[in-house]
Amino acid sequence: MAEIRIRKTNEIISGEENVRNFLNQFEVIYEHWDVNKLPAHLQENFSLTDDQKAEVLATFDTEIKDLVARRGYRTWDVITLSEATPNIEELLAKFEQIHTHTEDEIRAIVGGAGTFVIKGSDEIGYFDVNLLPGDLISVPENTVHFFTLTDDRKVVAIRLFVEENGWIAHPFEDPSFQKA
Ligand SMILES: [Fe+2]
């Protein structure tokens, strides 16, 4: 299950209900999928072929169609990132710049782990949402954030889009932001 760390205070928020309630105040959606549905050969596999990616999508077809019905997504895909990904350093450096989008950024983690760093209210400041397999998060449009990997540097995630070009990153300047 996801866990939240508030950067200013180091406060940890854990437990599905607490995580959901905390995120909902910023209109961040948090849901949980049953990743045990994934066939064994697709679990802990961070270099999926195109056919295997299609199998991952087929496994979660019901969950995807449910999101489509509720939130109007039109396309979706599977991404994998690991040490085997060409240009992983370059990609991570690019991801780790705070930015916004004109549509929500939704990710369902189906393998590995990942962290969304999100800017909350002035009082809360930035917080990390550490995501594990089964965790789904949707960061609303115009909310300042970035996505990064954990030290393991392995993730498989499903992304959904209303418009692919709605997801272009617009850099956000914040001199007070510190990465670590
Ligand atoms: Fe983003």
TrEMBL record:
Annotated site (Important to generate the dianion): R107
Catalyses which reaction(s): 1,2-dihydroxy-5-(methylsulfanyl)pent-1-en-3-one + O2 = 3-(methylsulfanyl)propanoate + CO + formate + 2 H(+); 1,2-dihydroxy-5-(methylsulfanyl)pent-1-en-3-one + O2 = 4-methylsulfanyl-2-oxobutanoate + formate + 2 H(+)
MF annotations from Gene Ontology: acireductone dioxygenase (Ni2+-requiring) activity; acireductone dioxygenase [iron(II)-requiring] activity; iron ion binding; nickel cation binding
Signal peptide limits: none
Pathway connected to this protein: Amino-acid biosynthesis; L-methionine biosynthesis via salvage pathway; L-methionine from S-methyl-5-thio-alpha-D-ribose 1-phosphate: step 5/6
Keyword Repeat belongs to the record: no
Enzyme kind, highest EC tier: oxidoreductase
Cofactor(s) annotated in UniProt: Ni(2+); Fe(2+)
InterPro entries, per the entry: ARD, ARD_bac, RmlC-like_jellyroll, RmlC_Cupin_sf
Similarity remark: Belongs to the acireductone dioxygenase (ARD) family.
Protein name: Acireductone dioxygenase
Gene source species: Paenibacillus zeisoli
